[in-house]
Amino acid sequence: MLFRSLIRTLSSPRSYLVKYNCLGTSFSNYRQIVPLSTTKPALKDEKVKVSFVLHDGKRIEAEGKIGDSLLDVVVNNDLNIEGFGACEGTLTCSTCHVILKKDDYERLPGEVTDEERDMLDLAYGLTDYSRLGCQIELSKDLDGLEVKVPETINDARS
Ligand code: FES
Fold first, then answer.
1. Ligand 1 in contact with 122 (CB < 6 A)?
2. In this model, does residue 143 exceed pLDDT 70?
3. Most buried residue, 22, 113, 126, 133, by CB count within 10 Å?
4. Which protein residue has the closest C-alpha to ligand 1 atom 3?
5. Cα(36) to centroid of ligand 1, in Å?
């Protein structure tokens, strides 16, 4: 019974897609089963919440997509953080300096590159848990991430 039902479903015209060649000629005897899927095609549309805490205690909350950098979050949400990301993520300014909580810092994936470390050395108010926002890539694990934005920025280009 189940087998007959399956055969009936598969032989239904709606279950098939007639395939055409590049000249638009139909191959009526060449059919392909249309894949049905209920899974999401990618996780990239999932949102990750991030909070930026300014030096005066003001808290700015925003969302980014998985794979976005913190700089992307600031730019895409048009956040009012003065001077943040002046070099647009080309690792030449250090204006995207943020300070993380120890636990958050330690759960960031990957190592700090030499280029980021060099730029961090020029940042104002460097701490052991400082990173450059343009180098922090959001993942689902970072949902709820909170970073402090230092009082002053130092644009290493000037
Ligand atoms: S935006 Fe310039 S170093 Fe990150």
1. no
2. yes
3. 133
4. 91
5. 43
pLDDT tens digits, one per residue of 22-73: 444 444 444 445 455 555 555 557 899 999 999 999 999 999 999 999 999 9
| Positive or negative: CA dihedral 49, 78, 124, 94 | positive
Tell me how far the alpha carbon of residue 66 is from its chain's centroid. 3
Q: DSSP letters of 87-135?
A: TTTSSS--TTEEEE-HHHHHHSSSPPPHHHHHHHTTSTT--TTEEEGGG
How remote is the CA of residue 57 from the centroid of ligand 1, in Å?
23
Q: What is the pLDDT of residues 89-123, one digit of tens each?
A: 999 999 999 999 999 999 998 899 999 999 999 99
φ/ψ of residue 115, rounded to 5: -65, -40
Cα separation, 45 vs 154, whole angstroms: 33
CA distance 55 to 52: 10
**The predicted structure's pLDDT at residue 38:** 55
Q: Is 89 in the pocket of ligand 1 (CB under 6 A)?
A: yes
110 vs 11, 58, 132, 135, CA distance in Å?
A: 51, 30, 13, 10
pTM score, two decimals?
A: 0.72
